[in-house]
Each structure stands twice: as structure tokens, then as C-alpha cells.
Amino acid sequence: MKLRPGTLLAVALFIMACTSSCKREYICHCEIVYSGQPGLPDTVTREYFITDTKKKAESACSGNSSKTEKQGITTEETCGLY
User: Fold this and answer.
1) Nearest-angstrom CA–CA distance, 46 and 31
2) DSSP annotation string for 18-82
3) pLDDT confidence of residue 47
4) In what order do the strands lie in the sheet with 24-35?
5) Of 47, 50, 74, 82, which has the most beta carbons under 10 Å away?
């Protein structure tokens, strides 16, 4: 049984598609806001890269969001993919 070149190419592309991952590089953008007392720092932003699937990257990034309060100062960090 002989395979035609076109069939062989189609099989090779199919195998490559099945074995490659859908991981990409995403930017997680976090904004940190301080409130509760005068003289606190301005809003701070930070960004970092996450290499994963979009769903996992969104989960990891939004998992960094938090809100804390200590001695009357509230710190709220909101993160999302950029």
C-alpha cells in the first residue's frame, strides 16, 4: 500500500496539530489602589507575562486579585489579562 504525497502531508499536519499545545504568552495587568488615609501612594500598575492556555492564564492572573485592610488602610489589587 502506497501513500500519496498529499495524504502523507495531511497525516503529518494532523499529527502536528494534535501534539502541539495551545499555549501562548499573555500579559497580566494588575492595578493596585491604596485608600483609607491621606498621603498614601498613587495607584500602582504592574505587568508580567504568563505562558499558558488562555483559560489557565486568565485564572492565574485573576487569582492575584485581592483586597486587604490593615490599620485603616485598604489595598485593592485588581488583575486581568491585557
Assistant:
1) 7
2) HHS---EEEEEEEEEEEESSTTPPPPEEEEEEEEE-HHHHHHHHHTT-EEEEETTEEEEEEEEE-
3) 97
4) 44-52, 24-35, 73-81, 66-70
5) 50
pLDDT digits (tens, 9 = 90+) for 23-75: 899 999 999 999 999 999 999 999 999 999 999 999 999 999 999 999 999 99
DSSP 4: -
pTM above 0.85, yes or no: no
Range 46-77 burial, b when 16+ CB lie within 10 A, else e: eeeebebeeeebbeebeeeeeeeeeeeeebee
Nine cell digits for residue 31: 492595578
